[in-house]
Protein 1
Amino acid sequence: MSTRAHECLMRMYLEEHNLESYQGSIPRWCSGCGDNAILTAVQRLCRDEKLRPEKTVFVSGIGCSSRLPHYMKTYGFHGIHGRALPVAEGIRLARPDLNVFVTTGDGDCCSIGAAHWIHAIRYNMNMTVMLHDNQIYGLTKMQVSPTSPKGLRSKTTPRGAFLEPLNPLTVTLGIQNASFVAQAVDWIPELIYEILSRAFHHKGCSFVRIIQRCPEFLPELLDPWLHDPNRTLLLTHEKGLQVSASLSRVYKNQREHDPMDIDRAREIASAGDPIPVGILYHNPSVPRYEELHAIEPLRTPELIQRGLEAELDKFTIWPQEEAG
Amino acid sequence: MCASTLAEIGPAVATGATRSAKQAITLSEHVIEIISDSGEGAQRCGQSFGAIAARMGNGVWTVEIIPAEIQPPARSIAGASGNRIRIGTHRVTNGGNEANLVVAFNEQVLLGRVRERELKPGCTVLLESMWRDHPDAGIAAAYRETREQLVRDGYDVREIPMEQECKRLVSDPRRGKNMFVLGMLCSLYSFDLQLARDQVAFIFGKKDQNVIKANVALLEAGHEWAESNLDFKYRIPAARATEAQIVVNGNTALALGVMASGMDVCAMYPITPATSASHYLSEVFENVGGIVHQAEDEIAACAFAIGASYAGKCAVTITSGPGYSLKQEAIGLAVMCEIPLVVVDVQRGGPSTGQPTKAEQGDLLAACFGSHGDAPKVVMAPSSIEDCFYSILTARKIAETFNMVVVVLSDANLATSQQPFPRPKFNEAWLAPPVNQDPVPEGAKPYDWDPLTGIARRFVPGQPNGMHTLTGLAHDRLSRVAYDPESNEEGLRHRSLKLAALQKSLKTPPLFGGEDGELLVIGWGSTRGAIEEAVGRLRAEGHQVSSLHLRFIQPMPGGIGEILKRFKQVMTIEMNWCDRPGDELIDASNRRVSALAMMLRARYLVDIDCWGEVRGQPLKPDAVCRVISNKLVQGRR
Ligand SMILES: Cc1ncc(C[n+]2csc(CCOP(=O)(O)OP(=O)(O)O)c2C)c(N)n1
Ligand code: SF4
Ligand SMILES: [Mg+2]
């Protein structure tokens, strides 16, 4: 073994991984904001997976939720509204060695970035996408979002939202190449962790919608679900989630669901209430764009020169002798 | 004034055209057009003709003639598809003036070119005669009327039975006529037939021998027919090239530049006239380990390129006007986060969807000042096909040295024009360095702006100790969101300083012509050839006019202010809009001037005039001559 690789292993062994290793600046979300639960879950995940902070990138768009990368002590890319996914795709394509996470909001993903959402699912590049769905625009102070329930009073719909909400799960499950679709709720942190962990281990684009409370603007929106555990439906399966005994005592409404069954997954996603929590769909064999279309890892100057000269040959007019 | 110094070409009238009696008229240059309905192969014919001329050692410039629609109806006035080839004894730097000789596969496409004033009055027309006796009486009548009208107007129309002649050799003459025409032209311009055979073998190289044979037969038949039936012949003397040259259009040159620069990723969304660069790259980029990503839209393409570049693999995104507009917000992000990025804008007519296949230089100000807020970026414009290749190398290097966005402004003229240039000799220094994965030194900050140059070394994911979150929000040196007045000003100041630092390393561009005089013409981008040709011609007539061509427009190299002072008058010539001083409402207080003129006036406080044309066509040297002459007269008043 070369010294370098040896040193590397030593360092990994010696390195301690604790939560602080992943904690960046102090979160500035409102108290009680569901984003905090999601942050804690990903920090735990990073610790438990011993992810090297320098090899991990959190990419986001713009919104309250998109502040998350700042609160991690990894690399982060807090870009522009709606465009987290294409940025993350570029990173993934360039660097197969990095762990790529994407944080996006319901406005970010399902409205301004909706085109990218559809195509990200279709590309199925290896990354973990967390949709923080608070059903409102938080950062810009309470405008209606595509996932807001019909009738919701917001600053731009003072007399109530006009349209039925878009369902991020049914949309995602309708896109060709969907390979991992799951749902979590911020009030069951244990399952955010479990689901994100499954998502992380899936090789492909894992899409996790996390229903997230915004106590600042919609303090009561999710109360009916919080007060009645039976309005949460846990999806369990030997290939999906296994739920702890303590959790099962509270959330008795459970159902076996085979995550390979896309038709059932679509049915469950459409029902909506009770809110399904768990892995709706998982297909590990969907091809990934970065495998089908990869940058050659060993791009030596010789390779480039050879390729270039071959192309120049096609267009070259060599000096010619005058015909006799 | 401005009379052409070239031999004037009238129709060559030789009596009793026998092969031996034909005397080749010697010319210093000629402009030839070959036009047909699309799909009839006039483009391939024209390109091959240009390539053979280049093999002969002639200077060549070819331009595609492209209809706006994919499949315009057959025989339609707006449907002309083909090529314009300008051939000269010496190097040719632009498409030249109106055509001297045109080959038309039907009279309607010919009519289109007449109406666009692209043909020299009285020029020679070689017209397919099959329509004369067409079973459809309407078509036959249209043909006869048009021919008669052209003859009345003084054109030297020669009716050629192309279809009939080709039928002797192939069952579907529609698919072979272009090689027959190529043979005819080789005879008319006294080209070496063997070079033409080689060229045919080269273009059909991938096909089987029978295809090559059939096409060579057509070529020879065309040659033979012209030798026996046409009573004129030209010769444009040339010296065979002594070094290897490559013949490609501007878009292929851009793509070759991308390969040669060691970039890894080209992210794009299809748009005319930029797409052909990506088509070609899609074919060949993998051979050197790179990839072309066709994104879902231009915003995604730009964001994708930014992501790849952020992660250490330098990326380019290639587009045209409407796509450039969509990328603006993401370009601002790259500026704010100081991510190297090369953006190519192959300009077309605008605004909005504008004229997709036509040339214009309307995007300069959008490139320099686009994206909201102050978003300093480098803007450069190649001025020749060769420069398309080298500009990409330069752009990549600047982008990565300064962590900046570099916009390369080509246009539809360069995109589809071909001009031979010396074959580039590969240099390892062209390549991007490998991704830096070294640990970041203790205490280093993600934005350690150098106080002098504004440059900060950037940390790439994978570098231990370099963890930070990039943000498009205002930030401090640690890349933390910071709205305090000092941090904001500090960021803006350093991002701006980088342009000054780059400017210090740029050389003052050389003057074409003299060091001082009555008039200085300033241009940028694809118009260089036409401007310099006109200036050269007028200087030969004794006029004190010079020109200056800017490759870097932002930052503008030093030394220009001093040059301006040495000329009595200064004007820009550009292919974008400026208000016409003659229009009734237009005066000095409201006249909108051309883009470069506006920038120069602002910087140098000199009363710089401008002239612009937005006809969608490349500038013609004659037109430039007229403009300059008028300006000289004005200046003497
Ligand atoms: C191009 C653009 N348009 C609009 C905005 C303003 N904006 C910022 S965040 C946001 C919506 C955020 O909502 P969501 O994505 O649901 O995130 P949340 O704040 O709820 O987490 C909007 C409209 C912007 N930053 N950029
Ligand atoms: S506004 Fe809502 S979403 Fe934003 S931080 Fe506050 S509680 Fe969270
Ligand atoms: Mg939201």
Protein 2
Amino acid sequence: MKGNTGKIVNVDLTASQVMVETLPEEYYRKYIGGSGLAAKLFWERGDIKADPLSPEAMLLFMNGPFAGLRLSGASRNSVAGCSPLTGHWGDSSCGGFFAPELRYAGFDGLILTGKAAKPSLLLIVDDKITFEDAGDYWGKGTEEVTQALKTKYGKDYRTLVIGPAAEHLVRYTMILNDGHHATGRAGFGAVMGAKNLKAIVIKATKKEMVLADQAAFDVLRKDLNVRIKEAVASNVLHENGTAANLMGGVYSGDVPVKNWTSNFWEESADALTGSTLTDNYLTRRGACAYCGIACKRYVEVKDGPFAIPDGPGPEYETIVAFGTLIGSIDLAATCKAGRICNDLGLDSISAGGTIAWAMEAFERGDLTLEDTGGIALTWGDMDTVIDRILPIISRREGKLGDLLADGSVAAAKKIGKGLDYTVHCKGLEAPMHDPRGGGHGMALTYAMSPRGACHVADPMLFVEMGARYYPEIGFDFMLEPKTGENKAEAAVMAVALGAIENSACFCQFADAEVTIPDWLVLFNTVAGYGWKAEDMMAAGRRVFFLKRLINYRYGLTSADDCLTPRMLEPGKDGEADGSQVDLAPMKARFYELMDIDPVSGIPTPAAMAALDMADEAKQVG
Amino acid sequence: MEFWKDETEPIKAFLALFEAAAADPELFEGLKKVNQLIWFDYTESGPNCSFYIDCRGGELKYSAGKPADTPDLVMSLSADDAHRSWSDKLNPVMAITRKKIRVKGSATGLLKLAPKLKKVAAIYMKVLKDLGWEDKIIK
Ligand code: SF4
């Protein structure tokens, strides 16, 4: 096989056994890799009835075909399976350094099942895979454990570590690579926790890879690395991180305020934007493997109540989730909250979203002091958030900790109040982009995304800004963000492109520079597919469909392609004031264009047949 | 050129725009925050068709031509697209993506100015009227 290694490792944690398996090339050709290949394997082998926190649950780590090939932004990986937060298909992309190492070890992926008898870690050194005792690390934060593992095994060993919150099965926990790069969404940290797997440690020495046309790949790789690095957006991301344009987002109404009750908080523009982080707290910049953009931040807050030593800094999502969303514009507090989330192993988006919901519930009287164990939940009270709420969530401590540890939707259901002001789709708390300000098309793709409200499942956010343009496939939209006009048409292409990105594990910030002809050269020189644009787009659409089929098995239908009442209220304040998403017509048009059945929410048999999915069509019945 | 008789007209309009913007306290503050030397290079519409603004060090200077110092940011586009852009009729992100605007250097300062573009456009309309160029206003 060219490009991909063709091999995955099946790890049975119950039996402490590993089995290396060779996958058919057709799987890669049809589902690319990353989250697409994970979906294919989950479709075939996943036990739909298994509780995601049971030993039977399957957790997949999958690389894309470009991992380790020294191309900017192309060495991410995908983690997938049944989300313990949502109870259906979930996937989460992660940057950092795990993917190249796995590939150098000779594998495209890992599939974990079972449950170790005691806290364990998986040690991969080239093709030697062993199970080690992790008793000393259990109960400890990701920072301490990462450092301890690097001390024990070596600095150049790459680590994936879960925090105490995942050990306590908090349903929105992450997996942290090298103490900095998060597999944040959908709660897969808890799946590792339930399997008694504290960490995966990996080191590989071999680097040989066989590509279909190495020389041609190298020509494009060098050119792309320069183009990606020199692009305007890259420059801005490098300088001021992913929050570089937070100010623009504030003025357009994209940045949610106080659990999405307002679209505008003017002071937050200066207080939280990326350049303020640079000016006040940045110590250095960081990057994922081989990435020339280097959008990652290291920060230090020297003094004050939120002082933290030099270490990983917050990205845009964390800055808003622990900023305006919960009523604060204190950037130092945000830096500290982000650091604590990392250490406890919490997904900052769902954590911020759940706390924002709880603050509104408390303000309305739907949560009382009795429910919270005497803790007042007040907008902007960052001391309480950092010192009390995050720690008790991570330990499921007391009524409040346990209530919030399952996410906002479960919490609202449990108290029987407040579902109308949760902000999610399919159980996944929404990211920090409010479509009423950012663009109504994003509301549509939030609703359509198989994992739930998600801004990285597809490039719709960028499409509505005007930052995506693929004339070769007729993708030439000039969109007015705050309307529904042409959004379904754009979304049809965006979901396929997003599926390609997430299956190829290419960072959305970097692949903005990758044209359709570039994508084809990449796939064809690496894996030798001989693809034309229509083949590649078909693969993207196939992946999107397959994830929907998996969700259908979980009982999801078109009725689940929806947004909450709060998200559908008219926007309030600023530029987004009165901006109201009209989801139904966009959704109907999207189904029509995609040939999706408007009741079941899955592709029609004809749509599946057109994409060579006859087997899947048969299996779904 | 679609909007301009010759290459001097756009520069006259844009310098008048910045003169008016500097007199507006909110925009003046916004421009100071940009803190960069920016060269607006419209030379594809004529060899002398360019101007610069220098917002470094809490001051605001602007003049026709290319600056003597190396600019922090160069924005190259046609004088017609510049007119559309200052009129808030050209989405800058879209224009950059489609290579209608070519950017060299750090665009960080411009991001700070972006939220004020609507206000800049309103002032630009007035400037055009004052110059007797109402016919150039894009409806
Ligand atoms: S742009 Fe940032 S997130 Fe993306 S690969 Fe590069 S460093 Fe990682």
